[in-house]
Amino acid sequence: MTMNKYSIINTHVHNVDGIAKVTGRATYTFDVKLPGMLYGKILRSPHPHAKILSFDYSKALQLPGVMEVVTGKDTLGVKQGIWRRFQDLCDEQMLTVEKVRYIGEPVAAVAGLTEEIAEQALDLIDVEYEVLPAVFEPLDAIKKEAPEIHEGFERNINVTRHIEWGDVDAAFEEADYIREDWFRVGGQAHMCMETRAAVSSYSPDGKLTVYSSTQAPYYMQGLLAGVLGLKEGNIRVISHYVGGGFGGKFELDGAIFCSAVLSMKLHRPVKIVFSREEDFTATKRRTPMSYYVRTGVKKDGTFCAREAKVFTNGGAYTGMGATALYLTGFFHSFPYRWKGYRYDGYRVYTNTLPSTSMRGFGAPQAMFCSEQQIEWIAADLGLDPIEIRRKNAHYPGYEVPGQATIVSCGIDQCFDVIQKWIKDKGKLPKNRAIGISAAGFMSGGIFNWFDTPYSFSSAVVTINYDGTVELYVGAQDIGQGSNTTMAIICAETLGVKVEDIKVHSGDTEHCPADLGAWGSRQTLMAGNAVKMAAEDAKKQLLEVAYAQSGFNIVYDLDIKNRWVHAIDRPERGYDYADLVKKAIRGKDGQRIMGRGYYTPHRKGMISPAYSYMLQGVEVEIDKETGKIKLIDSLTAHDCGQPINRLGLIGQLEGAFSMAAGYGYLEYMPFEDGKLMNPNLVDYKVIRATEMPEVSVAEIDTYEPEGPYGAKEAGEGLTNPTAAAIGNAIFHSLGVQMKECPIRPEMIVNALKEKEAKEREKK
Amino acid sequence: MEKRLLKLNVNGQEYELYINPKTLLVEAIRDHIGLTGTKRACETVSCGACTVMIDDMAVKSCSLLAVQAEGRHVRTVEGLETNGKLAPLQKSFLDHGSYQCGFCTPGMLMTSEALLRENPAPTREEIREGIEGNICRCTGYNSIVRAVEAVAKGNYKGESS
Question: With bands split at pLDDT 50, 70 and 90, how would you rate the model's confidence at B158?
């Protein structure tokens, strides 16, 4: 570890919202109560696929305390989505007008004096449906005879994506060994602790205020403007504290839309909070995929070519699934060099819960397949699984042909750390084995499907007379700690302390536009904007300092720890607050204001930078029951320069737990389009007793495009873990897990099959 | 059902509520008294976000009626601090970064507080078992375990709770 050359960066800092969160003062949308507020509830489709013939809600309106009932006919009927550049992919009416396409789709919304009244009213609404044939699996939905889910999408194919480089067929020719496998990877619920919630308040002056639990207030503002026919500027989205997002809260949801529609009718605030069951059955989920992978390697382990075909279960609407379809194909190649690579992805509509982005954005699915197949290839060829990976891995300066140029890359050091960890463990007890898996991820998606006319990230810094600092960012803190990261970058750059910075975020009325918290973009993109804004403000201060310093002009001045000084004569200086006072006087009383922004240019099509990681897991498996227990783990992660130490470790441990849950616990079984376990009794997430110790090895690299050299941390690590668990099972029992989550019965059945085969051989 | 008068002692304060006897304790605390630090995140007594203490015991406040807490001492996250001074567990959670989105934190703090009262020197395994009923989707629990352990080890001694 090198000496920390910074005052604040990578030191132990309390989160700026910590006190609010440990004292119960943090107020989430779930807690918002406005004067005169009404409560809304949503009626949902019981059918996976049906035409709506008629509504009758006269009885509901007669129930005392019911204020309003709305259906799709009371809305503009706009088909919306974040992919605004591509109108055909904006396919979801938040209150459907003619047809329902999944069980749980909103068909009507009620506002009442209390939540109980609104709920009772739902039973009094009669909807007449004409039930249509439905289809639930992508490989069934692409058949010629399958029912049509959206008009004009042949064979229900929603989006296709193709990625290719090199002469793939020739590269396969060079291979000594070719292996092909089919995998099925499941969905996963975001399961944010705060369910989707919104409070909308429309006033007669035509202005709408929406408190919402969202990852992207600016997206909500833009999307609401589109569906409600309002000007963006007349919509204020407030989102101060968000109880988790994980990729599931940057699209418009039923709570936000229906509360807004009801409030516009009633001119009163309306609050809608999803029950846990609604949050499971009527939001979106990680995209389930069927993966075909064919890989060709040389005898010495050199990777030649890879080909993948993927069919994803898109569910009823596009959501962010089109992006997941691209990214799964791209990151399936990571972190390796392939002479020839070909990916064909098909996103297929089905009559199930729509699938979308979730932490990892398609990459966890890809890595489950890729990293297990590589392990099996190494075993087939008798090669060391770490060395075969190392030999083919990306390196600094490597160009993914036609796709991306890798600048910083610390994966080689990750291999060293993992190798030592395994060696130090020595011989493991019976029934235990170690599995490893590698991955890489983006540091900020360069996607502008939303067609924003603004910079990707912006920040404004103003300095008060007493030296305190107001930092305005559009970056959204959803628990990942972006407010703290931004405060650290701002304080470090200005040369003040973290407690001098007040971060303003989560309010479109006061904060500059920013695309929000997704695609691991905040540290790099919003961080660069904050750094630029702070530098701008600091320059204005230093101009005044130079003007009155009397130093020879060859000296450079700086501010550090609130001390204005010559860099070469740090003892000669004075208090930063005095400089601020002088500077404000010198500017005729104007507050010091700095502006910053970031938009990627000439950084490829995907991301300005890439993080790299290796995950090791020690797993114990009960052969009789198939039960998996995680014993220990090591995470080696190259995230560039760490900014917030405590936050980084928390993000890595948290990503591990979510990824491990995906690997062996979080199963979403559907029967005829109905989710069978929409509650926290039957849907299992990792609990404290299931979580192993996580050792974190930070691999220090410097990413020139990141603020102070920082890259992604916290999303990428969702990618490798499921495969690492699968690889541990492979080493322990010699069985190959081609479906995720890996459930006990799969292990037991695989062992039975293996034994039967062995008996046959004898 | 007819409403009735209920006297509820929350954080040392006596509240008089006129409520439906079917009202859950969590509803009385959040909706009637207005202490919103206590959260709710499921309908199945599975997540622990609504955990409060009743006479030193951790209880999921969605699992009992408000009337069942009559005559008892209910303590919520708001009752952990004293005159703006944080309790040891709150400080330790801050120092160890034991929260991210913060939604489970109030419940997690109350469960941990009750755990340490019952077992002042728990092992890591006992801490894990103690907080098993509380779901945290963000942290992966380990930072919470470290924070509870630090308090148990006396690192925050001399700081009243």
Answer: low
Instruction: Assess whether pLDDT exceeds 70 at residue B159.
Output: no
B-chain residues within 8 Å CB-CB of A18? 93-94, 99
3-state secondary structure A725-752: HHHHHHHHHCCCCCEECCCHHHHHHHHH
Residue of chain A nearest B91, judged by CA positions = A22
Length of chain A: 762
- CA-nearest residue to B105 within chain A is A22
Cβ-based contacts of A506 with chain B (< 8 Å)? none
pTM flag (> 0.95): yes
* A133 cis-preceded (ω within 30 degrees of 0): no
Q: Which tokens in the block code for residue B120?
A: 């002042």
Q: What angle do CA A208, A33, A63 make, to 5 degrees?
A: 85
A25 touches chain B (CB under 8 A): yes
Alpha-carbon gap, residue B60 to B45, rounded angstroms: 7
Q: Does residue A3 register a pLDDT over 60?
A: no
Best of B92, B101, B143, B149 to disrupt the A interface (most A CBs within 10 Å) is B101
pLDDT digits (tens, 9 = 90+) for A594-637: 999 999 998 888 999 999 999 999 999 999 999 999 999 999 99
Q: What is the mean pLDDT of residues A511-520?
A: 96
Q: Chain A contacts of B99, Cβ < 8 Å?
A: 15, 18, 21-22
Q: Which residues contact B56 (CB under 8 A, 6 or more apart)?
A: B114, B117, B118
In the predicted structure, residue A2 carries a pLDDT above the cut 60: no
Window A:626-655, CB contacts with B under 8 Å: 646-647, 649-651, 653-655
Closest B-chain CA to A691? B140
**In Å, how far is B33's CA from the nearest CA of chain A?**
13
- Average pLDDT of span B7-21: 97
Cβ count within 10 A of residue A710: 28
- Digit-coded pLDDT (tens) for B62-72: 999 999 999 99
CA distance A303 to A168: 12
Chain A residues in contact with B95 (beta carbon < 8 A): 12, 14
CATH 3.40.50.20 fits domain B4-79: no
Q: What percent of chain B has pLDDT over 90?
A: 96
Report pLDDT for A511: 97
d(CA A65, CA A321): 40
* Secondary structure percentages of chain B, helix, strand, coil, to 5: 35, 20, 45
Domain around A526: 18-25+456-598
Asked whether residue A615 is assigned to any structural domain, the reply reads: yes
State the architecture of B88-152 in CATH terms.
Orthogonal Bundle (1.10)
- State whether ipTM is beyond 0.90: yes
**Four-residue CA torsion sign, A385, A388, A391, A393:** negative
Q: Which of A298, A193, A501 is nearest to B47 (CA)?
A: A193
- On whether both A434 and A481 belong to a single domain, the answer is no
Q: What is the largest CA-CA distance in chain B?
A: 51
Closest-CA distance, A634 to chain B, in angstroms, reads 13
Q: Which residues neighbour A416 within 8 Å (Cβ) at sequence distance 6 or greater?
A: none
Contact yes or no for A685 and B102 at CB 8 A: no
Q: CA-CA distance, B144 to B126, in Å (whole number)?
A: 13
pLDDT at A4: 59
Number of domains in chain A: 3
Domain boundary among A259, A281, A303: A281
Question: A with B: how many residue pairs have Cβ under 8 Å apart?
Answer: 165
- Does A241 touch chain B if contact means CB atoms closer than 8 Å? yes
Looking at residues B104-129, what average pLDDT do you find? 98
